[in-house]
Amino acid sequence: APPPAAAASQAPAAEPIAVVPPPAPPPAAPRREEPASRALPRLLSDSAPRYPLSALNRRIEGSVQIAFVIQPDGSVSAVRLLSSTPPGVFDEAALAAVSRWRFEASGQRVPTSRTLSFRLPKG
């Protein structure tokens, strides 16, 4: 009889501790992530950036992170540079390419960002 009583007294104490802490953190994190992933319209037309001739000749590769707003009609606006590596080499090409992109119309303004990578052609 003593062992079941000891097990029963341990089980109720363990349940409240295990149940109370986990519910608070998970709802906060998914609420922030889900609307952004659900609201991101599908890319319909992505204009590839032109590789700058000076970078091509010097065999330079890099990347550019761009922020922009997808408009309700699927067009892109407020295109701006967040960062680039190496600085100044691929910025103009990336900004020009992103401004030509078109997304599926969603009826909402969707702020987002993307990283464009500039890699030399193989061969």
Structure commentary:
This protein has helices at residues 2-19, 25-39, 53-57, 91-100; strands at 43-45, 62-70, 76-85, 102-103, 110-118. It is elongated. It has two domains: 1-39; 41-123, TolA/TonB C-terminal domain. The protein is built from four helices and five strands, in the order ααβαββαββ. It has 123 residues and is an alpha+beta fold. Residues 4-37 have low confidence and may be disordered. The strands form two sheets. The chain has a three-stranded antiparallel β-sheet with strand order 3-2-5, with helices on one face. A hairpin with a 5-residue loop joins β2 and β3.
Task: List descriptors.
TolA/TonB C-terminal domain; 39% helix; 27% strand
CATH topology of the largest domain: TolA/TonB C-terminal domain
CATH superfamily of the largest domain, please?
A: TonB
Question: What is the mean predicted local confidence, pLDDT?
Answer: 78
Largest sheet: 3 strands, antiparallel
Helical content band: 25-40%
Name the beta content range: 25-35%
Straight-line N-to-C gap:
79 Å
